[in-house]
Amino acid sequence: MRKVLLKEGKSCFDRRQPGHKNKRSYISLESQPGPGEILILRRYYTKHTDNAKYQKRVSWLEIEQAMSCACHEYLGKCLLQPHRGKCWQARQLRKTET
């Protein structure tokens, strides 16, 4: 399995140019695959509002015949803090007698 991109109407794979960290060259495949031979993987990324190092990545395959299913991945370390609305925990609860 290989990552294939669609550039200018042709299926290509990308390769980093030697000596250049961010430059890529796109090499066209010799035999172009048909529409039924390619799986489309979609992704989106989000960052937590309080901690930018904690990210969520959601990936799914676009297949018309299959059931829709997504994979949720969490990257980084979640720093859990108590919810601001729980100030009642600081107060001592009193028990009423019956």
What is the topology?
Blueprint: E1 5-7, E2 10-16, E3 24-28, E4 40-47, E5 55-62, E6 70-75
Antiparallel strand pairs: 1-2, 2-3, 4-5, 5-6
Region (Disordered): 1-28
Biased composition (Basic and acidic residues): 1-17
What does this structure look like?
This protein is mainly β and 98 residues long. It has two domains: 30 residues, no CATH class; 41 residues. It is 0% helix and 38% strand. The strands form two sheets. The protein has a three-stranded antiparallel sheet with strand order 1-2-3, with no helix packed on it. The radius of gyration is 24 Å and the shape is elongated. The model has no long low-confidence stretch (mean pLDDT 79).
What labels describe this entry?
2 domains; 98 residues; 3-stranded antiparallel β-sheet; elongated; mainly beta
Short overview:
The protein has 98 residues and is mostly beta strands. It has strands at residues 5-7, 10-16, 24-28, 40-47, 55-62, 70-75. The protein is built from no helices and six strands.
Assign an overall shape.
Answer: elongated
Which class best fits the helix and strand makeup?
mainly beta
Number of beta strands: 6
> Residue share in helices?
under 10%
Q: The biggest beta sheet, please?
A: 3 strands, antiparallel
Widest sheet, order of strands: 1-2-3
End-to-end gap:
71 Å
- Roughly what fraction of the amino acids lie in strands? 35-45%
In terms of per-residue confidence, which ranges show pLDDT below 50 for 5 or more consecutive residues? none
Q: If helices are DSSP runs of H or I spanning 4 or more residues, what is the number of helices?
A: 0
Q: Average pLDDT, to the nearest integer?
A: 79
* Tally of structural domains: 2
Task: Give helix and strand order, one letter per element, not per position.
Answer: EEEEEE
Q: How big is the Rg?
A: 24 Å
